[in-house]
Amino acid sequence: xxxxxxxxxxxxxxxxxxxxxxxxxxxxxxxxxxxxxxxxxxxxxxxxxxxxxxxxxxxxxxxxxxxxxxxxxxxxxxxxxxxxxxxxxxxxxxxxxxxxxxxxxxxxxxxxxxxxxxxxxxxxxxxxxxx
Length: 131
Prior knowledge:
Distance between the termini: 82 Å
Number of strands: 0
Strand content: under 5%
Helix content: 40-55%
Radius of gyration: 31 Å
Order of helices and strands: HHHH
Structural class: mainly alpha
Number of helices: 4
Largest sheet: none
């Protein structure tokens, strides 16, 4: 049964074209379908990997060949340095010196959210304007 499934996966033949030595194609197909649905293949892979890892037969280093990783078209010629910090009104406050651009952005977003919250609280306490 397993040899029939492995043969089909390796060769890519249709289920109906499995050689007769593996038994009825429909039986092989149904067994494969059931084992895929109930997680048998995943459990089998985990057990084989664990045994091979314990024996030191697996090298877990991951290597990526960048020649097959496509970059987005906008990635060509992109800046490598962070964007300049926006000019602030007045002198720069000392607590922001030494921060990265992302830390400054996060801090500014927090300030804006607080300002909007204060504005909304003041607006809720004032009488509505009529035009």
